[in-house]
Amino acid sequence: MWLPVHGCALPLPLRSPQRCGVRQFGPKPSPLWIKCSADPQLAWILLIGGPEAIAEFALARHELSRCAFEKKHWMTFVHSAHRIYDRQAKREAIERERQPKPLTWEERRQILIQRDEQRRAQYVLERSWDKPSAPCPRRLTLSERMERSYRRRRYLVKGQ
Predict the structure, then answer these.
(1) Mind giving me the DSSP string for the chain?
(2) pLDDT tens by residue, 8-52
(3) Which of 2, 22, 66, 108 is deepest in the core (most CB within 10 A)?
């Protein structure tokens, strides 16, 4: 270990060979993935039976082991397998919800009836637009407006 020369009172930690190289950021791989990538038997069980079969295998190994450390190791393995199984189950449930389920004859019949009613209502609405509306009143000419105002004034004057 070298002495600090950059003004820090504490020395830097020892470097280990595991920490050398490019640090990989992001989520850590699960113990299930690490173990299955190293052990061909577990990889085969995962391929054939999925995470649930791996959890069963790990529980059996947990019951057979005598060492406390090994029991703890297999239990973490079981927990990670269950977590992965839960994620897969949720993903499959979401995919099942997205897929449209086949309609029964009654449902299809109701949809056809609703479409027909909408088409008929739209046809009636279009026909009502085609009808001519009531004619607009004719605009008065200047002489007619002046005549009305003259009569109005005359009426007001007479009433006093």
Answers:
(1) -PPP-SS-SSPPPPP-TTT-SPPPPSPPPPHHHHHHHH-HHHHHHHHHH-HHHHHHHHHHHHHH---HHHHHHHHHHHHHHHHHHHHHHHHHHHHHHHSPPPPPHHHHHHHHHHHHHHHHHHHHHHHHHHS--PPPPPPPPHHHHHHHHHHHHHHHHHT-
(2) 566 666 666 666 655 556 677 777 777 888 888 988 988 888 888
(3) 108
CB 4 within 8 A of CB 11: yes
Helices 31-38 + 40-49 axis angle, to 10 = 120
Please tell me the predicted confidence (pLDDT) of residue 115: 92
Question: Which pair of tokens denotes residue 133?
Answer: 């509306």
Distances (CA, A) of 156 to 144, 145, 150, 160: 19, 17, 10, 7
* Neighbour-count burial for 109-134, b at 16+ CB within 10 Å, e otherwise: eeeeeeeeeeeeeeeeeeeeeeeeee
Q: CA 36, CA 43: separation in Å to the nearest integer?
A: 5
Q: Kindly report the backbone phi and psi dihedral angles of residue 33, in degrees, each rounded to the nearest multiple of 5, phi listed first.
A: -65, -40
